[in-house]
Design brief:
24% of the residues lie in helices and 21% in strands. With 80 residues, the chain is an alpha+beta fold. Helix 1 links the parallel strand 1 and strand 2. It is globular and about 30 Å long.
Length: 80
């Protein structure tokens, strides 16, 4: 599984996404976007409505913002 997280410094939502992934033992690459905007180099072909962070891309599927349920579903974690 390939996971890339686009974050910005001092962003609570970015921090929470990284915590969720780490808590479930998922390795990920982090790209820090200091101005909060994505540059598009790695994003060709992704269907995103707003090119802003945080953005999590799991096996090529983008998840915009902080969406715990979608992130956990995409990494195959189901908990009750």
């Amino acid at each position: 599984m390939e996971v890339i997280v686009y974050t910005r410094p001092d962003c609570d939502k970015s921090r929470l996404i990284k915590e969720i992934l780490a808590d479930h033992g998922v390795e990920f690459q982090e790209h820090v976007c200091a101005d909060g905007k994505l540059d598009g180099r790695d994003l060709r072909g992704l269907e995103i409505t707003e090119p802003q962070v945080p953005l999590t891309v799991i096996d090529g599927v983008p998840i915009e913002g902080m969406n715990r349920a979608r992130i956990e579903q995409a990494i195959g974690w189901v908990g009750f």
